[in-house]
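BACKBONE GEOMETRY TOKENS
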Amino acid sequence: MFGRNRKQAVLAKGPVLDLSGDRLRRAFTNLGESAQPTGGVSRYITALHLKSALFKELLGQSATGITETEFLDLAAFIAPVRRRIGPAIARIGIEEMAARIEVLLHGGGTVEERLAHFMASFPDGKEMRWVRDLGAELLHFTQPSVPLMTRWIWDARVSTGVLREIWHAEDVDAAEITAPDDLATFTTLRAEIDGFLEGEGVYRDRLWMTDLLMAHIYAGYINDRGGQYLRNDFTQEGDPMLHTRRMLGLDAVDTKTGRTRLRLIDGSAHEFGGSLSARLDLTTAEDAPEAADAHS
């Protein structure tokens, strides 16, 4: 729909996604306006580059040997995970967690097979749905060529996510979307949005701009109606980029206390163990640098 000829091979392998150009364009315009008070879109793109650098630094070569503090540093940047990971670490230990992550990131098989295996290594049930988000973010931010496959982008089981918010339909809420939440769908969705951004004159960092735009689209849904499975993580109002940051985990530090928003099994807040992590906080706009808008 929005792609160029060079994307047709990718799109041909995935489902046909009937996206709304008008919805995308409104979200794109609103993103630029909303980001200005906190330094502009480019500040958020820089933060995503840094988040990926942190994940690659700790997991890019091997997950074996990662410490509990280092792993929790990463988990602090994954909003659906940081309030739930404490009990899992306490139960299985960091060595077992590292072993499962090693298979996810560096094991044999396809990306889908490795993600499915990672999810199956944890207990099933409603309280463990965050495991998919953990696996999806670990894959994407260590290997950015893998699309971000989190539930907030598309969860076929409950038919919610970014895909529905930009679907072309008179009544989006009533639309029946049959696209599965598999790698082909996420790859096609990313290619479509990449094509849209290219058409809008975005020539750099489109991979991270795609993530940012999708987060802002779903943040709009949260602002309007709330998202049940993440609602406890989205309680403050007033900042138009607040939920966008939280979707991407870029609000990891509570600037009032200097601690992360990740809770340990005893209820205390995890404190960062590395210096790179602290550079990713985007909670306040008081010292936001002037930045050129990534739209141009």
Notes: Strands lie at 253-254, 259-260.
